[in-house]
Amino acid sequence: MTTSTPPTPTSSATAPEQINPPGGTERRPIGQVLRSQLQQSLAFATLVVLIIFFSISSSSFFTVSNISGILLSTAVIGILAVGTTFVIITGGIDLSIGTGMTLCAVMTGVFITDMGLPLIVGVIGGIATGALMGFINGLNITFLGLPPFIATLAMMLIAQGLALVISGVAPIYFAEQAFKDIALGTLIPGLPNAVLILFACALVAYVVLSKTILGRYTFAIGSNEEATRLSGVNTRKWTILIYTVAGIFTGIAGVVIAARLGSAQPQLGTGYELQAIAAVIIGGTSLLGGRGSILGTLIGALIMSVLINGLRILSIQTEWQNVVVGIVILVAVFTDSLRRRREA
Amino acid sequence: MKNARKMSVLATAAIAVVALAGCAQGGSAGSGGDAGSGDKPYIAMISKGFQHQFWQAVKQGAEEKAEELGVEITFEGPASETEVDAQLQMLQAAIDKSPDAIAYAALDPEACIPLIDAAGAADIPVVQFDAGCDSDVPVSIAKTDSLGAGALAADHMAELIGEEGEVAIVGHSQINSTGVERRDGFVEQMEAEYPDIEIVDIQYGDGDHLKSADIAKAMIAAHPDLKGIYGTNEGSAVGVVNALTELGLNGDDLTVIGFDSGKAQMDAITNGLMAGAITQNPIGIGAETVQAAYDAINGDTPEEVIDTGYFFYDAENMKDEEIAAVLYE
């Protein structure tokens, strides 16, 4: 683990590129960049079309209060999706983010309500729980050689169980208004803080993914892990780090959902991971790895919540809402594969 | 590398230890557990779930009654109320342990028939609680009359909004019997008794607080004249209350009627966000179920349907003895 310290700037910039088409967004040929923009603008166009459609269908849709509601309902899934974008770009998957988020919420409750620690300590503790889960996922994938699907499936169950055990199968309530304000306060009038946190997370993730070595290796591992490793990159170390970063976002989502509900609800979380993964895929990130963007994920998450909100506003039956969302995922992934085939 | 592998094993082991420690702590609650090998009669209770506080209250009532009667019980249920298959496996395992009686709450009234018939063939008496199985074997059922409870919610909603206007329902399930009956009882009562009230929307949030809040917000946006929302279980009702808080509304803007109790819902009623809620008697359901099983073991015939009752409670009568006894935090 200690054999290769972080590579020098020169080796980091050139190593992966000698072997395979570089993964980093900066150094790709212009055509590839354009195509990637196109995929995003395709998703963006979908979002705009949806918004126009629902605005025409119902006068209740495009109102300040409803748009603010849509953004707020995007926050939790959006933060999870931003974190898991890293994992999916490496060609991995993280199924533990839904129940993991719940465990982070419960731990935040334990720290703040049960142990009476200061808010900031509880929040950091909740986020650290997420980082620890991500770290263990990373270890299990790299050193035990477990497929990401299995390693994180196991973690999903462990997190669900621990959340129930630790909470004693009862919600943990937060008494302090300051904690609830993390999600529902309004630093910008009319816009809940949870939305600001989502945008801040997306911004940080965007910078990390496009401007740092971590981001470059995320793409490199996803494009061709073996080649990346042979070029002298300690892929195990970076994989662990990537899962840990994803875990941090899981932790943030846990704090945000606890703050929004004013309580940690230990039975929540199942299914959230699939919604987050769907948002990532709709946003143009490839499940095969090597390709993806944070902006796309953000748009994907917005498409999901605009769609669900719009269908609810139109009083479409819950059963049909699921059908429509399913079809949108199909169309998004199909368009993506069509584009790939044309590329090949 | 070796070190790292060791670390990874250690980390996994550490989690396992924490998990086990947790189990040991919770072990006294006796979910799962072995069949009683002592002289005490043993009743295996298979519930619809254990995570909701409602089921925790049923379990509490059952344990208190078991203590009183000197019987041994185990109480288990699947992780979510959609896991019909997992529940059937628990039922199978319970039958295999040859208990003195089985108490069962059916997630699906059809799927359970072969197993319940098998229990009957093995001469294990079966009593039911909350929701029944379409088999002739069970001798009794202790439950809430959900249709009546839904109708009671409708009566109070109608009274509070002046018997006219638009209302909506945030349901918790369009499949399981409590979700369906609490909704139908409400809808039928409105249609029969209050012609000037229109139910403009019914949507389902699976009892998920977050989903239910987003649903309620969409309803409020879509129907500006909406006068009231009925949430059919704890998660749905608390979700509706959260929606009100997030929109800066209060109980004067919109009448909210909930179902069951729990701390968040009781707080909302106390501070006026929620007009009131229907409560069942979960502790009573647990106690009556164990009593019925005990009677069946001793060759007595318990009542076929034991209605454990339901009440409407609001800020005024919440502290009454009769009501306070059936509420749970």
Question: What this model shows, in words?
Answer:
- The complex is a heterodimer of chains A (344) and B (329).
- Chain A has 344 residues and is mainly alpha-helical.
- Chain A has one domain: ABC transporter involved in vitamin B12 uptake, BtuC (Orthogonal Bundle), CATH 1.10.3470.
- Chain A contains 13 helices and 2 strands; from the N terminus they run ααααααβααααβααα.
- Chain A has helices at residues 9-19, 30-57, 64-89, 97-114, 119-142, 148-167, 177-184, 193-211, 213-230, 235-261, 272-282, 294-313, 318-343; strands at residues 172-173, 263-264.
- In chain A, helix 4 packs antiparallel against helix 5 (119-142), helix 7 packs across helix 8 (193-211) and helix 9 packs antiparallel against helix 10.
- Chain A starts with 8 loop residues before the first helix and ends with a helix.
- The relative contact order of chain A is 0.20.
- Chain B has helices spanning 2-26, 53-69, 84-96, 113-121, 146-161, 177-193, 209-222, 234-247, 263-270, 282-297, 321-324, and strands at residues 42-46, 72-76, 101-104, 126-129, 140-143, 165-171, 197-204, 226-231, 255-259, 276-279, 305-307, 311-313.
- The termini of chain B are far apart.
- Chain B has 2 domains: 40-144 and 282-308, Response regulator (Rossmann fold); 146-279, Response regulator (Rossmann fold), CATH 3.40.50.2300.
- A 6-stranded parallel beta sheet of chain B has the order 2-1-3-4-5-11, with helices on both faces.
- Helix content of chain B is 47%, strand content 18%.
- Chain B: Keywords: Signal.
